[in-house]
C-alpha cells in the first residue's frame, strides 16, 4: 500500500506479481474498513475513498502490464 505521504508512488516499476500482491492487500484493507464503518462510523470516512482510488490505480497498472504481454 502506498504511504499516506506519497499516495502516488511509481507503480510502473513494480512487476505484475507485485501489483497483484499489493492489490490483494488493499482489497483486504478496504473490506475490513467497510465492515468497521458499517458497525460504527469511521473517524475519517475519506479513507474509504482513498482506498477505492488506490485499488483503481493498482488495477490500471496491472491491466497495462498484462496488455504488454
Entry keywords:
2 helices, 69 residues, mainly alpha
Question: Care to describe what's here?
Answer:
The chain is mainly alpha-helical. It has one domain. The protein has 2 helices and no strands.
Largest sheet descriptor: none
Estimated radius of gyration: 13 Å
Q: Rough shape?
A: elongated
Distance between the termini: 25 Å
Question: Which secondary-structure class do the elements indicate?
Answer: mainly alpha
DSSP helical segment count: 2
What's the helical proportion of residues? 55-70%
The unreliable regions are none
Q: N-to-C SSE series?
A: HH
Query: What percent strand?
Result: under 5%
Question: Domains counted in the coordinates: how many?
Answer: 1
The total count of strands amounts to: 0
pLDDT averaged over residues: 88
